[in-house]
Amino acid sequence: GKTKTPKVYEVRVDRPLxxxxxxxxxxxxxxxxxxxxxxxxAKPLTARTKRCEVIKVAPRCFRIVLxxxxxxxxxxxxxxLGYEVVDLHRVKxxxxxxxxxxxxxxxxxxxxxxxxxxxxxLFRSEHLG
Length: 129
Hints:
With 129 residues, this protein is an alpha+beta fold. The chain contains three helices and seven strands, in the order βαββββαββα. It has helices at 19-27, 73-80, 112-128; strands spanning 7-13, 30-37, 40-48, 53-58, 61-66, 85-93, 96-97. Strands 4-5-1-6-7 form a five-stranded antiparallel beta sheet. A two-stranded antiparallel ribbon has the order 2-3.
């Protein structure tokens, strides 16, 4: 099967996060999403999100590490607890850190382990895909 890689995001919401809501986000929240597959809309899925790591980094900001990627998942998780997402930024793809890339078109030179990782993923997709 397809290997799932962690998706790391920094999220800012419209009001201070309560400690119990941080725990609830980590434990899972029931949301409804519609899978987008090959341009076809599937039936809606109402289910609890998988457990994930959630770290509060400021009163209204948290970092979340997802192993699944449901459509608009973070926004829906926050909405289920009464928060509105003000800012959402992906900070890591695979193990490539995106810090400092803030606007569309920004780029960075990959070196060392990050470059090896990207080469490995591309090689595998080319030979296994």
